Amino acid sequence: MKIGLETESFHLQFISGRMDIFQFIRKTAELGLDGVMINIVRWPGLPGWGTLESFEPEYLMRVRDEIRKYGFFAEIDTNGTDPGHLTQVIEAAHQIGADVIRTYCCFGKYDAERLRRAPEDIKRLVPLLKKYRIRLAVENHEEEITDEIIQIIKEVGSPWVGAHCDIGNGMMAWEDPVEAVRKLAPYANTTHFKDHIVVHDGEDYRVCGVPAGTGNIDLEQCFKILVEESTLTRINVEMCFPYAIFFKREPGTGGVFQVGEGAFKVERPPYELDIIKPLDYYYPPAHLMDKMIEDQEKGVEQSVKYTLALRDKYCRY
C-alpha cells in the first residue's frame, strides 16, 4: 500500500505564501512517502488554482517533472460536477500525470439539487476519463452521507467513476466513520486518511481535525477495512489540523443522533477559547500564524508516522 500526502495538510504554509507546490513535493519526499494529492480548489483572495499557480502547459510540465523526479504517484482534488470545469481539470491532470481526481457535489451546505444533477453531469465526462485512463472519485464531503455517494456511482454506472472515501467527513452528516468506510470501501478510488474529535466552543458542537492517532476515530479499524475490503493501492494522509467545522445535516441523518460516545466523544478544543475559536482555526489571525504553522507541521509528522506504522502492520507489499 502506497501512502500519499494531501496539500491541505500544509494549508497554512500555502495560504501564507511560505510553501509552493514544488516545496510541498520535496517535503513529501523528505517524509518518506510515495505520492502527492494536489488540491486545486480556489482559495478566496489568492490567485491560481489552489496549490497550483496556473494551468499553463509550461508550468504544469514543471510540476510533472518534479513529481516524476521522486517516482511519485499524483492525484488531484477539485470540487463540483460542472462538465466544463471538470474537463479543464481532467486535461490538467493528464498533463501532470495524475490518474485520480477527487470531486464533491455540495458547497458548504447540503444541496439535494446538486446531488440529483451529479450523475448526468458526470456521465458526460466518462469518454474523456476513459481516453486518459483517469478515474473520478466522488467524495463524502461533509454534507453527503455514504448512501447518497453510492447512489451517484450506481447511476453513472462506469468503471471510471467511484468513491472518494474520506475517513472523517461523514461525521459532519452524523455518520459513524467506521460504518462510512465500510460502505464506501468497495467503491473507493482514493481516500483522505484523517482523525477527528468533537469540541464545544461555548455556542455549539464542532467537528475538529487533529493529527492521526490523537483523535477518537478508530483509524486502525478503518485502515484494516480499506486494506481488506477495497481494491485501493494507495491511502492519502490529509492532516486537517488546525480545522474545525459545524455539523452540516440534522442529527440522525447518518445514523448518529447525538454527541458523547465513540468518534463523537466531546473533548477539549486544541486551543483555549479565549485565544481562538474553533471556527477561526483555518484562517487564524496574524499573531497566531507562526505558532499554528509549527503545530500543523508537527501534526503532519505525527500523522505520517502513525499511518506508516499501520501500513507496516497490515500490508506486506
Keywords summarizing the entry:
eight-stranded parallel β-sheet, about 325 residues
Share of helical residues:
25-40%
Strand order of the largest sheet: 7-6-5-4-3-2-1-10
What is the total tally of β strands? Answer: 12
Distance between the termini: 6 Å
Gross geometry: globular
Report the C-alpha radius of gyration, rounded: 18 Å
User: H/E order of the elements?
Assistant: EHHEHEHEHHEHEHEEEHEEEH
In terms of per-residue confidence, which ranges show pLDDT below 50 for 5 or more consecutive residues?
none
Number of helices: 10
- Nearest-integer average pLDDT: 97
Largest sheet, in brief, is: 8 strands, parallel
Per DSSP, what share of the residues sits in E-state strands of 2 or more residues? 15-25%
Computed structural class: alpha/beta
What does this structure look like?
Strands 7-6-5-4-3-2-1-10 form an eight-stranded parallel beta sheet. It has a four-stranded mixed beta sheet with strand order 11-9-8-12, with no helix packed on it. The protein is 38% helix and 18% strand. It is α/β, with parallel strands linked by helices. It contains ten helices and twelve strands. The protein has helices spanning 11-15, 21-30, 57-69, 83-96, 112-123, 126-132, 146-156, 177-184, 219-229, 286-314, and strands at 2-6, 35-39, 73-77, 100-103, 135-139, 161-166, 188-192, 195-200, 205-210, 234-237, 244-246, 266-267.
